[in-house]
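Consider this one:
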Amino acid sequence: MDSREEGRIIGAFIIGGLLGAGLALLFAPQSGKETRKDISKFARKVGENAREIAEDAVETIEDLTEAISEKASEVVSRGKELTDETKKNVLKAIEEGQKTLEKQRAKLGKLLG
């Protein structure tokens, strides 16, 4: 499970808990004035928690973007290294092929000459 899924699950539990608390306040036997006061507190808490969840989500997205950027840079760098290594290997193989060809020419020259 990645951190985004964990964040969503935690956020869902928090929001569910807050909604449950809000419903309990609505159905609790108390005066209208007290209930309105409790609802106001509840709304402030929900707003604060939603803001915190949004900030956490933004931070998680920023971290994810940074990690992806770093991995992409690593892949590009590794690709360049592989390309350079491949060029060296091809040049080495060509040189070895040329040496082998020269040896074969020399043998043929001795046989025919």
